[in-house]
Amino acid sequence: MNLELQEIRNSVRQLCEGYGEEYWLELDRENGYPTEFVKELTESGFLTVLIPEEYGGAGLGVIEAAVVMEEVCRAGAHAGACHAQMYVMGSVLRHGNASQKKKYLPEIAAGRIRLQSFGVTEPTTGTDTTNLKTTARKDGDEYVIDGQKVWISRIQHSDLMVLLARTQGRDEVSKKTEGLSAFIIDIREAEGNGLTIQPIESMINHHSCELFFDGLRIPKDNLLGEEGKGFKVILDGMNAERILIAAECIGDGRYFIDKASNYAREREVFGRPIGKNQGVQFPIARCYAEIEAAALMVEKGARLFDAGEACGAEANMAKMLASEASWRAGDMCMQTHGGFAFSKEYHIERKFRETRLYQIAPISTNLILSYIGEHVLDLPRSF
Ligand SMILES: Cc1cc2nc3c(=O)[nH]c(=O)nc-3n(C[C@H](O)[C@H](O)[C@H](O)COP(=O)(O)OP(=O)(O)OC[C@H]3O[C@@H](n4cnc5c(N)ncnc54)[C@H](O)[C@@H]3O)c2cc1C
Fold this sequence. Notes:
- It is built from twelve helices and ten strands.
- The chain is an alpha+beta fold and about 375 residues long.
- A hairpin with a 2-residue loop joins strand 9 (about 270) and strand 10 (about 270-275).
- The chain is globular, with a radius of gyration of 21 Å.
- The structure holds flavin-adenine dinucleotide.
- The site of flavin-adenine dinucleotide (FAD) has 22 residues, from strand 1, strand 3 and helix 12.
């Protein structure tokens, strides 16, 4: 057993105990944001584990960050409220210039600035990212941004956002991935000055919004990385994002398995615990096996990422396997609890809704299968 990882696990578990399931249920009911929880997670250094020590973070790897996210989910919490701070920060770390890193990273590490939001998805292009329509036009010392984004999460609880926009038309570039640029947007200055934010009523409490850009002016210094090479800025962060989301699914899966096992031991019908029936016991055992197998892929992806090795296949497979396994565990947990699963008081239906997201966002299962088909198995390209 890796003692350092176990220590992180225990400490995150302890922190989460201060925010019981009632806390999360109440937030879910009123679409509230877990401000106190996120603040404590940040101040304890867990949300900033990936920031290098020279900028005030813990300088740890994705393997440690994954353990943090897994434990948050296993405790019945909703990591979607805060996970992006971990991986969006990576775009600034890897592609920011020296002055951007100096300006933002220590502030993020100290919890004074929140970089919790990234704007890629658009209503008319969806998964076809390189076809996005939002434009950033250079005008003197500024860029002027026009367009629309959808499903942009946590923007109302963030100070900064990383935005992807077109700086050159698709007809002006030879490759569709060119001509896109990434920007750091200071939401505090932008809102009301060319940026309008509209919350989306949705199935889970994920704080997602629609964004309208109408002549938003930002300093040209807010360009992140090279102009026209923004797709790489976003792409580089995706493997970490997928591994961390997969770790959340492992946490969700273990949460469901714990709940179902406890209930199956305690609930008595026909004069014996329901778990004595193999019709109840086997689905729990199957989900356990599936989650443990997916966890191995998450760990493999994280270790490759931390070693600086190619991990696209593993990160994608981890996300797919873990999100499917957590969903099946959620379904099993519902079935094990019978009618009580529908009572909000049991918390299962909330987690069941939350874990469903991860087969769709940040990337859907079909797109992962397409990645494996093309990039791992060398099958013909489909789009
Ligand atoms: C709660 C929530 C939070 C989100 N947060 C963010 C965020 O913070 N920032 C952000 O930028 N985005 C965010 N998203 C957007 C998310 O990343 C997208 O919803 C996701 O990438 C899928 O895009 P889409 O919804 O446009 O689906 P579409 O691209 O319209 O696809 C619909 C379905 O068709 C399938 N499909 C499409 N094309 C193909 C093909 N060629 N072959 C096979 N199948 C195909 C897809 O797999 C999918 O199942 C969020 C979404 C949700 C629901």
